[in-house]
Amino acid sequence: MGERISTLTNRLGGRFTSFGAFLEGIGRPAVTKAKFVNLAPTDQADKAGVYSEALLFATTDPKVNNIALTGPYGSGKSSIIQSFLKRYRRPSLHISLAAFVKEASPPGDKEASTPSLKVSRQEIERSILQQMLYGADANKLPLSRFKRIQSPGVLSIFKSLYIMCGLLSIWYVFKKREAIISGTFFDPLEFSNWPNFTIFGFSLLFLWAALHKFYVASFGLSLKSISLKDIEIRPASDNLDSILNRHLDEIIYFFQSTEYDLVIIEDLDRFEDAEIFVTLREINGLVNANAGVRRTIRFLYALRDDVFVNTDRTKFFEFVIPVIPIINASNSIDMVLEQGKRLELDGRLDRQFLREVSRYLDDLRLIQNVFNEYAIYVANLETDDENTLNANKLLAVLIYKNVYPRDFEQLHRGEGNLADILGRHDELVAHEEVACKAEIAEIERKIDVAERQTPSDLKELRQIYAMTLVQMLPANVNSISLDGQSWIALHSLVGHDAFEQLIALPHITFRDVYSRGQRTDISALQNEVDREKTYFQRKAEIESKSEANKSESLQRIRELRAKIATLRTAKFNELVRSSADRVTDLFDGFGEKGELARFLILEGHLDDTYYQYTSLFHSGRLSPNDNKFLIQIRAFFTPDPDFQIDNPNEVIAAMREADFGQSYVLNVKLVDCLLNEASRYSDQTRRFFEFIASQFEGCEDFLEAYYATGRAVPKLLFRLADEWRQFVPTAIASKRSLSHITQLVTNLPERALETLARNGDEFPDFVAAKLSEILALAPDLAPERLERIGFEVRDLPAIGKLTGIVRFMARRGLFELSIANVEHIYREVMGETNLMAFRECNYTTLRSLTDPALIIRVERDLDIYLSDVLLELHDNSGEDAAAITDLLGREELDEDNLREFLGRQTALLPALEGVPEKLHATVLELRRITPTWDNCISFMGGSGFAAEILVAYLDRKDVRAVILKHSLRNGPETLPLCQFLVNANALSDDSYREYVRALPNTFKNFPKSLDSSKLTILIEERKITFSKETLESLDVNTDLPVLFMAENIEAYLTDPGMFGLDDVFREGLLQADIADDDKRAIIDLMDLNTLTELPKRAALIGPILDRTNVRISGIDAAKARSLILNSRPVETQISLFNKFHSTMAVDEAREVLAALPYPFSEITTGYHTPRRPRSDENRALVQWLETRGIISSWSEGGGWFLGDEIRVNLKRR
């Protein structure tokens, strides 16, 4: 029943409280955006009334004396209490220990709960006791031993009058003491004596009041100690550790004398001392148990959740109210954005920065204070209505100021963690410079090694091809040759100058140890090594790879040197990031919240420009860097060129005139100011340029730094080039020539570039030689500037990545003619992909392009194109006839180059039309024309005709094979060619025979000065008309007359008497290749009586007679014997013997048999049996021998035992 009443009471109290708050809100002014917000706890933190309802329940429940409001720091516990007190109508005592922090506590960590906050328990309890006792009116605690100054009230004037009257009355009574003692003072006892009675009564009353006052005051006295000379007496309670326990009577008296029923204690958890809670709980119990306290006293603690471990807090407190934090690291961004919106900073602050930095801010009051200070700082720093300050950096500085207040204070004196980190600037720059220089040295070492390696790689490539070539040659070869004249020893082949020319040939000549020379085919050499790539392609790859690596390394060196030049002006956070390990120890000094400092510094929000946000600017003010610069030069020390100067005009004003003619002027910021205000500082600028001209080498470090970060580079270079005529030659001769010339090309006005180019070739030549490196330093260079210099690009592939420049220079024709350049334009600019056509028929391919830019450039320097492109393309052998004719028709081209080019081509010109006559012989000599009779006739008709060239051309087998497919016309236009062919004694016999055979007509006489072989061919091909005169014109000492007669034997036999030939000539005819019938006819014309005397003639006539099988009259036994015995072979002899045996007697026949070869010579008389193979001639022989009785008999066959031969049975005697 009691609980229901209590619950009802709480609800009613909440409703009335809400209604009261509503009434209070009526009439309040509307809330407007304020520039500042207070940091005090708000009373609007519990709009839903959830916490107030819980607190009301706890404060009305008779069983609840100790209440805990728990939540993390910054969760809004104080605001919840304020919101509750707004509704809580009874008296409450507020005790806060939030500001009770020792002087030596860590800076900026005011809410830290670490053991470093060494605050003693007695100090904490003293603070609680003081806030409790001194918070009440002193008049309500008259008996308290803790005396306080009381201010006089309204009645104090009457009290002082009362005291004065009381003292005067006592003094008056004291003066009348004798009368009072004697009684006369009271006489008479009448009204007329009222003054004496009044004074005496007032004095007694005053004395009583005074004694009463002293008596009451004695209750507040305590005897702490009695001290004698060597003895001190102190009560035992004075040594108690707990001040609260020691003054417990004061605390009870306090609650007896006041109306407080709720004591709110905040921030007691900061000191990590659980004993103090035990003491307070005990005090609460004692107070509530005291009979003099007739109400319930409740203690409300605002604590962290982790003050008590496990379940201790639920045992300690009767009621625990958890607080959900209104801000933490995850939602602090909303609070930050709200503050920015309040100050209308949304457009100035970077949301990403706010989002990131808010993760480190979890205290709403801290955030509010930062933006309060932001409003004040902005109002003071931006007085000219120009938002020149970086709002993000200002906010970062203020966050740093609020989170690390002590470090911020020390920063103004150049001390503290941030000052130490900023002081490491020079050290970090030096460290980075050393690291960059070390890397540059290492890269340069690698470049040097690579440059030495490239020749080694090329040598290895040569060795591979040389070894393969040696393997293709026969054993015992000791030298080879390109032309059969100059010889290269195999052991010196790799290093020979003609190596590359040699391996590109299809055939070479080799010589063995016996000095015998032979030709061999090596056309498969390159395929043997690599089927995909030729030697020259692999060589180009090695050189290209080396060049690419070198280009990449040089690019890295340029980047590092540019980095060195900008280190001094680099952002501080970039330096710290690159060397974070060198400042880690300094970040440790920020304590547990060092992550925030690390974020602000490493992200560049907090750097060496902090002074712009921490102090007001005054005109003429020198920054710390400006002062440092002036101090260094006055100490005769030259600062680095990129030393930061913040107010160059003020620094210039503070410098001496002589300083501008010395190295002190070599500062980027100073020179920027001088050049941009040249009219104002004309004298200083003149001294500056004079110093550079006199000490250029010593100024190069400055120039490098200025190129990198200076703002008036074009003005600097223009004045140097204009006022110092030797600037360009000096810059080219310097070690940093590339950097200087790059800056000239990039920044010099275009007219000035033209002037420099006209003044000499030194500048354009350097740009052409170093173009790829220049463009690596200035990739955004406008190509029109290169055109102004008027040079030709030497290596387009080296700048291939810069397609805009490549296309521009290609369209303008500003490139040297080389294979690499032309191929790059063909592929990358023209977009062509047929590389085979490019390499095998280059000129033909270029002529076929629709874009004329490339061919126009080629024709501008056709002689260079021929020598440096076409002749260097070793596979360029497929040009078409039109392209070849076009080149041959160019009078300006070198004939030797044209000859070499023509010799490589495989295409044949259809005709000599369009080819200059002086090159006709070359075309035929190199066999680059289609073999036709008309082309030969044209060649003979031109001024460049050379008989030996035509002969050599026609003498080739391939030419004969083609030209002889077509008949030679018979007409007057072909007659010179026919006569030339007939008289071509230099032709080989085979060629001569074929061409003579192709002649359409015959000739009446034999040509003079022809070799006998050629005359023989004319005779055999019947190209000379047969007559007695032509026969007599032939040398009789040769076989030619006989041959001529034999070829015309029919004409001779028709009228043999006309020629008057003898038997000796006829004997020659018998040996000629004529028909046997013709030979038989010639034999009839001969005198056969000479047969017995001329056995050779008999040997010649015998076989003819045997083959013709014609009987000849006038053959006697002697003639027959000569014919038989001188003829050959033996079969012919037997055949003639069979024909002419009838002209002989038996004895004569036996003599012939005896003279015949074995076994015929055995056919005599005796007992043996000669045998002969079975044949018709042998059978005829034995038949007539048997018939004529020369042998007994003969037989043939007879079985396997007797054999299959003719057996001759001889007569016995």
From TrEMBL:
Which UniProt keywords are given for this protein, alphabetically ordered? Answer: Membrane, Transmembrane, Transmembrane helix
Every copy of the YobI-like P-loop NTPase domain together lies at 51-418
Q: What is this protein called?
A: YobI-like P-loop NTPase domain-containing protein
Tell me the InterPro entries matching this sequence.
Answer: P-loop_NTPase, YobI-NTPase
Q: Which residues cross the membrane?
A: 154-174, 194-216
What superkingdom does the record give?
Answer: Bacteria
A Pfam family this chain is assigned to: YobI-ATPase
Does Membrane count among this protein's keywords? Answer: yes
